Amino acid sequence: MESLLFFVLVGSVIVAAIARWRGWPAPLLVTVVALAASFLPFIPELDVDGHVLLNLVLPPLLYSAALDVSFVGFKRSLPQIRRLGIWLVLLTTVVVGLVAWWIMPSLTLPGALLLGAIVAPPDAVSAAAIGRKLGLPRRIMTVLSGESLINDATSLTLYRVFAAMVAGATISVWDGIWQFVVAVVVGIVIGLIFGIALHQLRIRVADPVVIGTFGLLVPFGAYAIAEHLGGSGVLAVVAMGLYVGFNAPRTDYTTRQQEAPLWLSMDFLLESFVFAYIGLQFRRVLADLGAESVQHILILSGAVLLTVLLVRPAFIYPAHALARWQQRGRLRRWEKAMAAGRFDQKAQNRPGRDPLTPEQMRRKMTEPALSAKDNAIISWAGMRGVVTLATALAASDIAALELSAAHAIVVVAFIVTVATLLLQGLTLPFLIRGLGVASDVDHAQDAREIAAVRRRSNQAGLAYLETKRTEWAEKYGTGDMKAFDMFAKRLTKIETDTQQIQVVEDSVPRPSYEDLVALSKGWLHVRREVLLAERDADNLDEEVMRELLTAIDAEELALDTRGATRPQSRA
């Protein structure tokens, strides 16, 4: 078993690497190759327990995705994300369950609803990969990524409820609602506890290797403890990842530079394995088909597939229209209150922060606008993935579930997963190009935000240098400040710090090398603080801030590298 897992990992990584090299969607190519490989007689069946698969694969993938998601964007798009991640999953579960019960009554209603909960959550890994490659706007990427972070929590909670009903437990609607509330509250609380603890460790320990290792381990702990306490392990990992990711700019730059490639490699490895595992299950599916009426199960699979394809757009467009209508009503009431002077200014005050301006209040009350074309992309980006297949395999082990029903659930879950991956995954790029949905608006907005933040950064930097100039004058005397002025002038230009230091060190020996490094790092610190302030004030997109922060981190790395390789002066 261990050797088989190793070869699957290596093979899937090789195929995914070829896909990246050729510019093809890696999840789709890995799935297709694995499907073909499952026909080979010398390939043994890869059988991994569904619960083990979820516990090993889901926490790191969710945590990595949450680290990359803009918390500001996530918060602004939360109404849209909540509709897709909770209400759409609930609707899909019920509709699929009723359709499956009607076609195959032997499933029983709890078993049919269990199947609905299994196939309800889309896996946005492949959709996000295609979207990034084709330049989807951030407003769409944020919704898709946010949905994938919370829909698994909804589906897994529903899965537990219906699995208990299949096993013979009597659970009312209120019991199910209570389980969901407990899962949400406990999951988020556990996630925030772990997130705060990890963040405190990140800002106090300067060893990026140790921090990176803890970062790999903590998601598993948060997931396991939350599940043990009856909460949602998914929400625990997501809450922890959002908290740590939002506060990552406040940690040492070496931590950020260490964890970025670490998580990229982890994602690449796990995603390659997951899609290879999906494809390799074809042999097991064929065996299950041989045990029952092929025609009956295929009809059920086709009906469930059609249902999940149609329910998504049928929900998204009306829900979006209703939300826009409610939003217009809220804005009209707020504008009337403002015009009549009845608006409570204290309601918008934030402790330790400036009150929100009317424009900021309006933006806070408004969802990011999505056009009909945007919703078409979101409607078609509903590919299923590892959660669907893993929960189906776990359901097949439920003792109270009849063997025929267990076979049907596994076959339907597999067909829906593979069909949505190939059908929607292969056609999504053509849909994106055909509708002309691109990130041109993002580029223009980014350019304006970058220009504005550079002006503010320059002003803050000049104020910092003026303060340091006074300190240097007191320390080295006012007779000759030419070296400081030259160094400060170079700091305000786009040049490397190594060149700056070299020029000053050769021309003016009085200030020490450490003084110059401290001045440069102070300058970088001021620029970082400006970026954080602009992000917190909602004047700068978080993803743009991260790009600018990466450039500043590279400058500080150049400083430290220059210091590490600099010959030591003799006493």
Descriptive account of the structure:
The protein is mostly helical and 571 residues long. It has two domains: 2-338 and 358-438, Up-down Bundle (Na+/H+ antiporter like fold), CATH 1.20.1530.20; 443-565, no CATH class. Helices cover 79% and strands 0% of the residues. It is built from 23 helices and no strands. Helix 21 (497-507) packs antiparallel against helix 22. 40% of the residues are buried. The model is unreliable at 494-509 (pLDDT under 50).
Could you describe the largest sheet, including whether it forms a barrel?
none
CATH architecture of the largest domain: Up-down Bundle
User: How much helicity do the residues have?
Assistant: over 70%
How many alpha or pi helices? 23
What is the CATH topology descriptor of the largest domain?
Na+/H+ antiporter like fold
Oligomer: single chain
Count of β-strands: 0
Radius of gyration equals 27 Å
Uncertain stretches of 5 or more adjacent residues: 494-509
The H/E string reads HHHHHHHHHHHHHHHHHHHHHHH
Query: What's the structural domain tally?
Result: 2
Note the gap between the termini: 62 Å
Structural class: mainly alpha
CATH class of the largest domain reads Mainly Alpha
Strand percentage, roughly?
A: under 5%
The average pLDDT value, as a whole number, equals 83
